[in-house]
Write a structure and sequence with these properties.
The protein is α+β, with helices and mostly antiparallel strands and 420 residues long. It folds into 2 domains: 99 residues, Serine-tRNA synthetase, tRNA binding domain (Helix Hairpins); 303 residues, Bira Bifunctional Protein, Domain 2 (BirA Bifunctional Protein, domain 2, 2-Layer Sandwich). It has 12 helices and 17 strands. Strand 11 and strand 12 form a beta hairpin. Pfam families: Seryl_tRNA_N, tRNA-synt_2b. It catalyses: tRNA(Ser) + L-serine + ATP = L-seryl-tRNA(Ser) + AMP + diphosphate + H(+); tRNA(Sec) + L-serine + ATP = L-seryl-tRNA(Sec) + AMP + diphosphate + H(+). Its EC number is 6.1.1.11.
Amino acid sequence: MHDLKALRADPAAFDAALARRGLSPVGQQLVSDDEERRAALAALQEAQGARKALAREIGLLKRQKLDTAEIEAKAVALRDQIAGLEERANTIQTRIDDVLKSLPNRLDTSVPDGKSEDENVVVHVRGEKREFAFEAKQHFELGEALGLMDFPTAAKLSGTRFVVLRGALARLERALGQFMLDTHTTEFGYSETSVPLLVNDDAMYGTDKLPKFAEDSFRTEDGRWLIPTAEVPLTASVMGDILPADALPIRLTALSQCFRSEAGSAGRDVRGMLRQHQFTKCELVSVVKPEDSEAEHERMTQAAETVLERLGITFRRMLLCAGDTGFGAARTFDLEAWLPGQKAWREISSCSNTRDFQARRMNARYRAETGPAFVNTLNGSGLAVGRTMIAVMETYQNEDGSIDIPEVLRSYMGGLNRIG
């Protein structure tokens, strides 16, 4: 989770990093707890050594048929002392772990200060906002008018925050996912992967989804989790491994269903497809050496941007401020698409460098020249398919309610150039 050795060396710096996220200091308390734990372990080791010595002495006296009652009493006392020291060391370790599990990643120095998304920094804007000679509609208005986006049936089947897509819109969703996979695999060297949609506690914990985000995910009755993103199985595929140095970088992509409870989102984006319990996403994951992670972050973000550029979607890259950077991320770039119907920028991709935060949680290492070292892991959306479809629908809409198909998707749509 966090490097205790580095924390002991400079607890003030650790607390300063937490303060950037608005958190209270814990560094000195953790150092004190760790010192107490190590003192208990040292006493435990000493007591175990003394008990072994007494065991040898008891054995010698018994062979000589001498009285061992006094020494055996000492051995029993040592046994009780050892049990108490073990319990104490374990209790302190659990206390330390519980605190560390709750603490987010340390932010990169390049992350700007700020408390909310209002203080995120625009890195660049690509494309021009389309001007309409008519009042642009939102995606759900277009989809429902075409009879191809059905929320009432989805609600009958599953409740709110679901949708049934039909006909050309269902095919558009599939086309977008295939286009994304083809772009990332053929041009950016990502390896296409089909992943399980159910994972265990270790995979969720290792990718920082537990315990912090348990309420945001769906759990099955047999104790497994529906994946909130393919980041979880892709990243956790190296859990517990010591990788050869020449195996890095590892670049993986998966097009999968994702499931989120959207806890705490009551009243937000209740119309349409922006915030769903189930959605499709093309995920990008990289596993790299620490010295390569910054360049990999830029490379991954550019791969996601390429998809938007080729679709002709106007977007901007945002560097998230300290208060808006996610729990496991050291630095995050969000890509926000311009939605003409909403007249707003909305997140369509989030690309994060977690440095060694996830690697420490899942014990993923590689064979460095100086010995096993933690890898760095990165993850990003390349892209969220549903939100990309929203951007395509609203950007390419016509006054009569029809939707033009971006040229790069027409071969995936069987030559269709317009819906409606």
